[in-house]
Amino acid sequence: MRARRYLSAWIGFSAGGHFSQALATVIVLFAFGQPTAEALLGTAGVDAALAVLFLLAGLSLLGQRYRIEWHGVLPLSLLAFVGYCALSVLWSEYSWVALRGTVSTVGFVGLGLYLALGRDLVQVIRASGDAFRIMLVTALGLEVLSGLVLDVPFPALGIRGDIAYGGPIQGIGGTRNFMGLIAAMALVTFVVEFLTRSVTTWRAVASTALAVLALMLVQSPITGLAMVALAATALALWSLRHAKPATRPVVNGVLGAAVLLLVAIGVLFRHRVLAEIGAAGGTATRFDLWAQIRTFAAVHPIQGWGWVGSWPHEAVVPYVTFLDPDDNRFTSGLNAFVDAWLQIGLGGTIILGLTALLAFARAWVTATTFPGVAYVWPAAVLVLLGVTSTAESYLLHGAGLMVFVTVLVVAARRRSWRRHLPHR
How many CB atoms are closer than 10 A to CB 67? Predict the structure, then answer.
């Protein structure tokens, strides 16, 4: 009985506003700081931290169960994707690795659900803003310590200490591309914080300056492309939010046609574009990797080899065969959809694509029609993830998957067709 009373008291405490907001901040901090956490704690330490956060999030949701609107919230597309990934364990040739990857995926999906259900959107943005401020200060501090104070690289953290030469920096991301994603996400979050008046002006200005400085120092071509897409998205959202409701379908049609035209031009002149932004060398490596992946994906084209999320460290086929020009193993497929094709085949990739398209459509319509400025954040975040996913696989695991689930559920809360079904 005493243990039951303690558990009830803890559930009640974890449902409180202060604890829930602190937990949301820690979750964002852990997810985006995972490369540094893994370097310091190892894979077992990261798995243990994920399990603890998942348990705390579950208890907090249990305490809030009577004030959470569950009706029609969980998207069927998300449930289908996670279910398909779990089923792939049955036909995988490396079942133990696939099972571990599925458990990790469920863990980050659960954290994303907590952010979407246990906090409202403004609270999620505030928690993310606090976490990103901590991460940017820590990342730049480590870079200054490595490159200017000690003049010694930190190989365990992936920091080379190149800040003295203007970059690129890796910070707490392990690579410049992931650090670029962190800085870009932080910039979007800080701007929306300012627009929603969630923080004071001086804090918003200082945070934005910090994010811009980090973006300049990462020198990541893919982040540069993502920022161009983000600027175009911001202009489009501003135009649509100020347009009359009757003219919005026309404006959306023009914008859609313009995007398709730009994508076609980019594909036709991709070599010149990549050379201009300094990404030609990295893209050649990606093309070689994708050619190898196509060879193995053709063995199991429909169902895939089995879900693993982030590629395993163990020597299992086919992941052990993918080597870069320096004979180092790749840690991902460097493209979310090519990676998904290898792991869960065409069937799972189609489900993932439909889930992403549905999430973006819902987020875009909400951002352009709902008066709250905070609803711009999910659409902008999805643009960042979408552009970055063409060159990295962040969408399939870790922080990218968690944020994707969060914005997917937030968008579904306003646009899900199942909201109109009668309550039982």
Answer: 7
